[in-house]
Amino acid sequence: MTSVKKTGIVLLSLGLVFALAATTACQKKADEQAAGMAQKPANEFEGVAKTALGKFLYLDKAQGFDIVLEGFDAATLAGKTIRVKGELVPDKPSLFRADTVEVKDGAGAYRNVFTRTQDVVVGDFLDTGSRENFPTLAVTSAIKPEEWEGKGKVKIFGKRQDTTVKEGGADKPITYILLTDDKGKDVGKIIVDKASDYAKYYMKKLGLYDKFWFYIEVKESVDKKVRTKTKELFHADVQFAGLF
Question: Out of 1.10.357, 2.40.50, 1.10.10, 2.40.430, which CATH number does the structure's domain 44-115 have?
């Protein structure tokens, strides 16, 4: 082998080594930056308040988080462009605590509308781990109360329906969870007695979906004669609603 070829091989080898080292360094730097971002989540979001109910708010630029405005009616911010500063709630990675909220006016200037003065209370929050304690409930018929009686806390797939019923000559608002079988045939409906603020917020947030999961606590059954006639199955309290 000539000296020229040997020199070429050496130079080529050195080039490959330098290229590999540079690639490794770049990858290491990217990994470190990603790790840094994971360890230091953003503490400021700006965007349009898409869904708001009670103290909970969903911001289009803060996907994956539900923003909590403790002691404030978040519904007053729906549809407005806002800037939120705060941080994640400890042990509740899907909740972002708002410390201040500013609203953008027509001239493009921001004005403060909220400054947190109290600790965040998340008593009605149902995290992913807790949802695993809600087994799936399957109801096939209005004449089979054994399918739901005594089941306690369960999750069931259905459709929300808001309507009114006559009570004492006046209209009374009522919420149902409509149940259907695999072929789309009506099975019955669950009477919602109450829902947590967090559940109400999520039911509103999921308004574009036809059906979703309701995490409920089963209560008393409707009288058999009424149940057979109206297909109202039982009463329940809703603790959460979600796509899974």
Answer: 2.40.50
